[in-house]
Amino acid sequence: EEDTGEWVCSCPSPNDMRYRHGKHPLFGSHGVNDASTEPDAIDAWPDTFPLNVAIALTDTLVVIDIDDPQVAAALLDPALGLRDVVTISTTGRGLHLWLACAPTASGILKHKATTERIGEIRASGWYVVIPPSRHSTGRQYAWLGPTLLEHGPTRTTQDAWSYARELLASVGVEFIDRRDVAGHQ
Predict the structure, then answer these.
(1) Which pLDDT band holds residue 181 (cuts at 50, 70, 90)?
(2) Which of 54, 72, 129, 170 has the fewest CB atoms below 10 angstroms from its CB?
């Protein structure tokens, strides 16, 4: 619905974290299952206001979603050189690291020392918002380096959990994983 010139959430529970503005589908109620690659369906989407764009994930096209700003900043330290080897997009709070990997289940990353949530590993059954979409914080998603279309996801023979464990250890972060945790999809 439109309110004072801005598009706002029209779902029945706008304060429910599962339905944050900009993070749920505008069309349909089946989340990632409403995704389409059909040109006719995409052409039918309205173009009278800016829409966010998302990609449906699989168990081998996976995103490591880092929401902790300090962990994201550590990963972007030029000395680590991550931008040169990993397909990365920024989000409203952190980073998306795009992987083509061994089959991986989704779940939550919690900092081992603090038990605070660092982010998630998102796989089959999830979708991830991509640039140039706008996050509910107002920040625009952006690619750091080559885009997913230019470079493709970073390829690894590991599953995303093993990849994340090694990557985060390189910046001094150990995590507890909670795989297959249900969340908004």
Answers:
(1) low
(2) 170
pLDDT at 138: 79
| Contact predicate 110/175, CB 8 Å | yes
- Model pLDDT for residues 110-134, shown as the tens digit of each residue: 999 999 999 999 999 888 888 888 8
CA 24, 28, 31, 35: dihedral to nearest 10 degrees? -110
| pLDDT given for residue 132 in this prediction | 86
HSE, CB side, 13 Å, CA atoms: give it for residue 57: 30
Alpha carbon distance 19, 125 (integer Å): 16
Over 50: is that where the pLDDT of 7 sits?
no
Three-state secondary structure readout of the chain? CEECCEECCCCCCCCCHHHCCCCCCCCCCCHHHHCCCCHHHHHCCCCCCCCCEEEECCCCEEEEEECCHHHHHHHCCCCCCHHHHCEEEECCCCEEEEEECCCCCCEEEEECCCCCEEEEEECCCCEEEECCCECCCCCECEEECCCHHHHCCEECCCCHHHHHHHHHHCCCCCEEEEECCCCCC
